[in-house]
Write a structure and sequence with these properties.
Oligomer: single chain
Number of domains: 1
Order of helices and strands: HHHH
Shape: elongated
Number of strands: 0
Strand content: under 5%
Mean pLDDT: 93
Radius of gyration: 18 Å
Distance between the termini: 19 Å
Length: 128
Amino acid sequence: MTATDIHSEDRPLRPALLRGWRRRCPNCGEGRLLSGYLKVNDACANCDQPFHHHRADDGPAYLTIVVVGHLMAPLIHLAFTTFRPEPLVLASTFTVGCVALSLFLLPRMKGGMIAFQWSRRMHGFSGG
């Protein structure tokens, strides 16, 4: 068994990503990962897992744009070809939809990205 196998078993990816999606600590699943909309807590209030060294940067925004774009583009095409709404109605409806979906996904993507880093022991998450 290699060191990589031990690390993979020690911190399984799937539960960590699910906890991150719920904006919970990837270690214990109880403490809050975010103190505000996108502000990351310095550490978990439940298990004291530090989060201050995460490196999410622009990754969550990029992933959010990719997901929203891939969901909304076919829906816009489908709505336009099927229902033929007025351009202003189509634009305003899908603008609201894109903004709402983006606001919903962004903190969840950030939680998932931090959980991924924790699970793979990246950027200072290598400690015990």
